[in-house]
From TrEMBL:
Residues 357-446 form the Histidine kinase/HSP90-like ATPase domain. It comes from Streptomyces huasconensis. Residues 1-24 are annotated as: Disordered. It holds the Pfam family HisKA_3. It comes from the Bacteria. The keyword Nucleotide-binding applies. This is histidine kinase. Its EC number is 2.7.13.3. One of its GO terms (molecular function) is kinase activity. Keywords: ATP-binding, Kinase, Membrane, Nucleotide-binding, Phosphoprotein, Transferase, Transmembrane, Transmembrane helix, Two-component regulatory system.
Amino acid sequence: MSSAKTPPDQGPDRPADKPGGRGAAFRRATTAVVDGLRTAGASLSTPAGSTEPLLASAPKRWVRMLPHLIALGFVATLIPVTVQVLTHDYGVGGGLAGALGVAQAAPLLLAVTRPLPAWWIVIIADVMGAIITMASDPDRPGPWTPMIVVGYVVLCCTLSLRESRRTLLGVWLVTVVAGLVLGAFHGGDGQDTGVLLIVLSGAVLLLGALLRERGDARRKLVEQETISETERSQRTLLEERARIARELHDVVAHHMSVITVQADSAPYRLDGLPDAAREEFGSIAASARESLTEMRRLLAVLRSEGVNGERAPQPGLDRLPHLVEATVRAGIPIDLSRPELAILTHLANVSPAVDLSAYRIVQEALSNVMRHAPGARTKITLSLDDENLLILVVNGPSTEPPSPLEGTGTGHGLIGMRERVRLVGGTVDVGPLPDGGFRVAARLPLLPKGSGTA
């Protein structure tokens, strides 16, 4: 029996195991490392877009000045201490020690607004200072002096509050490389401070970044809540306007129907009408029918999905005693101040829009009492002046805890009141009372603005 030959791509010498295959993998790894270094270099060379000082948005002036004062305090402390330590402990010349002290500490003032450029200055000055101090006295702590450690940690605080994660990672990697390389050349018996700076800078950068991101998330959440609340209020307003328009449909449709009937019957009720007048009445009736049809289409647009049309007649002030009776049964004691007979006769001639709006205002006021002040004694007063219907609903403080399900309310009550009052051209005043109660005072014109008398 002849043995099958091993395919060339499955034998021990397949291309993946050849040096050329390993070379391709090495090239890919090298390319990835170079791309990562290029990205890190771009991050380290591109500071944050904002040059606004730290805490610049704080409401109080002394808080806004606090970063500048802290940076000034560190600079004023580190420069003389650095000069003193370098000259006396490390044997560095006075002029060179002063230049190193200024180069290592003064950029902290710049870090308040531009921390990344300040870091470039500091890291170069720190590396130069480490080389000089190790050459001067290798038996002292190195490669970083204690002043370098303190200033660098403070600088990391400002970086973490402004720069991105990628930039912070690049800063820490540079710190690690510089510390390890300089630590390898640090001879003598002095304490190695390279690892100390690596650990402290990494912890500060990580903690500062987490605090900053937490603050950013909280601010975005507050902004989103504000936007959501505004959108919710706008949506509620639009819903109330649509509901009011649906309720007024019957009122307007009634008037349009009357116009249609009068125009259609005019040629039969009035003798001796010329042909031109008959045509005019016919045109009026046709326009009224067309308007009524368009109103029905508008009502279909305003009606929410899944909401059936309202079949019952719209209520008015004549239904107010029934509303009060139902509310009293719900546990709200109410005193209704009814107008005299002459006033009732006058109210019989009030416009349908005002009649409906007045009823709804009282209804919304009583609903708010039930939600926010259950058990509170409430007084409703209706009165008239020369041209206005006056509505006053006053409730005392609550005698029972608000319902946990409706304690927060929906806000529709006050929005609905204001929209109805605006609709008929009146005014409304709502607000709490000193004793803990609440007051709703509305003034509605007996005839809405823009209407005329027959």
